[in-house]
Amino acid sequence: MKKGTKRYSIVKLKCPRCQIGNLFCKPGLMVFSNILEMPDKCPNCKQDFKQEPGYYTSALWVSYPIVLIIFIPLIVLGFTLDSLHSFFKYFYPIIIIFAFILQIPLMRIARAILLNMTIDYTTKW
Ligand SMILES: [Zn+2]
Fold this sequence. Notes:
- By secondary structure, the protein is mainly alpha-helical.
- The protein contains three helices and no strands.
- The protein has helices at about 5-10, 60-80, 85-120.
- The protein has one domain.
- The longest helix is centred in the C-terminal third of the chain and has 35 residues, at about 85-120.
- Helix 1 (about 5-10) packs across helix 3 (about 85-120) and helix 2 (about 60-80) packs antiparallel against helix 3.
- Bound molecules: zinc ion (ZN).
- Zinc ion binds next to loops.
């Protein structure tokens, strides 16, 4: 993956400005404590991550379409596979478990996408 692209910053959860500093105090997609804890500023380029109060509330609206893109095909597939009874007995619990597993990476990726929508990569910082 090429450094300097927004995709690099989003997938690696790096600062959108320098793409060196980590967005989160605990790096990685799957962590199980302090999942949304972020430093106030990038440890490398000092880019402010706390844009304004309530800024990351709008990350909900970034993750919402991602969830729809992932789960609507799964639900439609579940309904077309077999009867409605077997859907709720077998397929629905799998979707619920899958949703819980994806929760943490989706919240982190949504924040990274949101920051990348407003901050561009630069080598001059
Ligand atoms: Zn940075």
